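Board notes (copied after class):
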Amino acid sequence: MTPQRLDKWLWFARIVKSRSLAQKLVNGGHVRVNRDKAQAPAKAIRHGDVLTIAVANRILVLKVLAPGTRRGPAPEARLLYEDLAPSPSSPPISDDGEDADEDAGGQGAAGAAPVGREGPAPGRRERGSGRPTKRQRRQIDRLTDKG
């Protein structure tokens, strides 16, 4: 395999939407090639290199299988790499809206919070937080004699 520019490969593999975004990603220090931080977007990558990319609140670990020749459709782009990152497994959710492992002292495996989770799942909120619903607002109005 002939070497290819890192930013170009990231764009061909559809990791980012544009080459300028790929360059910003590399210059920002969010890309590692074989555990070494990539210093420049022009860094040459080859078949077998392992890329670690921190993008959009997740970490991708990709093994380069082939150079890109064009930015084709997504199925064609997936042939350029092998995903080495473990598949994300969602923790079981109980009926009351809380995670099952929070009932056991609030700690997951090895006593640490799961990687990539800083709060409740998107679209969910903890009970009692946030704005009141319309029904709750009407109950509050009745209680305070505003309605």
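Comment from the instructor: Confidence is low (pLDDT under 50) at residues 93-115. The first strand starts at residue 4 and ends at 5.
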